[in-house]
Amino acid sequence: MEDQARELRRIRITLIVLVIVTLISGGNSDVSVNYPNYDFEGDPQQNVIQLGDGRFGIITDGEYMMIYEYDAEKNKIKKVNDIELYELD
What is the pTM of this model? Predict the structure, then answer.
């Protein structure tokens, strides 16, 4: 019985020493993240028009505009309408 208690005490001491060594030496790691050289915002596209309230339009063929709406809660884009550009005048 004494041998088991002595062995458990040695294991406990060893675990405490390992935890102390890990805490002292393990906290000095540096993490670096490399991003591409372009801006995430990006340059505005010639055929994309901001309409406000999470809506934007995309001009196709110079005659039509497809209107989309962005739902931030679901992180989804939904097509709202197609219109011809001459209707906007």
Answer: 0.47
